[in-house]
Design goal:
This protein has a two-stranded antiparallel ribbon. A two-stranded antiparallel sheet has the order 3-4. It is α+β, with helices and mostly antiparallel strands and about 110 residues long. A hairpin with a 2-residue loop joins strand 3 and strand 4. Helix 3 crosses helix 4. The chain has 2 domains: about 55 residues, no CATH class; about 50 residues, no CATH class. The chain contains 5 helices and 4 strands; from the N terminus they run H-H-E-E-H-H-H-E-E. Helix content is about 65%, strand content about 20%.
């Protein structure tokens, strides 16, 4: 029983830290883009509703959900930051065919040209 309490307390603390990080990310995005919070995250109720986020916030959430995507994004960023000229050619080749593939939890997800 004592161990169960500790585990729940650790889980609650982790959730609080994640929520705080999300709030800080949105706050930083509003300051750096000079927009209101409503331009960063929008929610709509009812049919066709959902939650819509700025691309940086959406990407941060996607990286949180998928370790594979997280590593791919980090790899591309590090290659770009180091001036890897082959990276631009690889992106161009993928853009020519108009399809980017990503695997999420064992499912292939195909996204049309952005």
């Amino acid at each position: 029983m004592k161990h169960e309490y500790r585990r729940r307390k650790r889980t609650k603390l982790a959730a609080q830290k994640e929520a705080q990080y999300g709030k800080e990310l949105v706050d930083f995005a509003t300051l750096s883009l000079n927009v209101t919070k409503h331009h960063i995250i929008k929610t709509a109720r009812g049919k066709g509703g959902g939650t819509y986020a700025h691309k940086n916030v959406a990407l941060a959430y996607a990286k949180y959900l998928s370790p594979e995507l997280h590593m791919q994004v980090n790899d591309v960023y590090l290659r770009a930051a180091s001036g890897d000229v082959a990276l631009a050619e690889q992106i161009f080749d993928k853009a020519k065919i108009g399809v980017f593939r990503h695997s999420y939890k064992g499912r292939n997800v195909t996204q049309s040209r952005l």
